[in-house]
């Protein structure tokens, strides 16, 4: 049977595709820093996945960084992606609470879209087919436009609350944003929670994001509502987190096993 697809630009994207590959990792606690996660890969080389920059990647990066700088009121002297990560750290440190950081990140996401486009999508597209069409569309657009930020990713099938499955997922093999920031708080408060809020409130598409802090992969599930009590809030800091490292240096009596921004 010929695969059904949606054509975006010149290339058809399949509506059904397999889930991402499984990686064998073991997560253990460091003896010197209890509660901090380290990754020991078993039998598989820990090489980063290759990603060939697209024609519009620099444009997307500069657009996103400019909006981020406008919100933060500060820019890094570092060029490119490294500078973007530094500004993201400043965004998280600037927030007086988790909620203010999330709200700031949502404003940044909204500013990336032309006026009324989000409202029209939510009003006209989101209700079609019980939300499935909108969920599949945003999954494909995410893969096409966000690999510069996240790294290699692909559309896959996810289980929906009604017991059916739908090709409205996005599997990120190894999230570049998480790996470069090395911070659970930046992942959750400048990416996961604001992105979930943005799609649900401003595009009418429920979204659950499931980052894996062991292998840096991430599963997007468009069409699935996030739980009210997300277990990610209990995640400890990554051992490599620069913010946790600073806290250990200046306050040895402070418990840094729990991220202050989760």
TrEMBL record:
One of its GO terms (molecular function) is iron ion binding. It comes from the Eukaryota. Residues 148-228 form the Beta-carotene isomerase D27-like C-terminal domain. InterPro entries: D27-like, D27-like_C. This is Beta-carotene isomerase D27-like C-terminal domain-containing protein. It comes from Phaseolus coccineus.
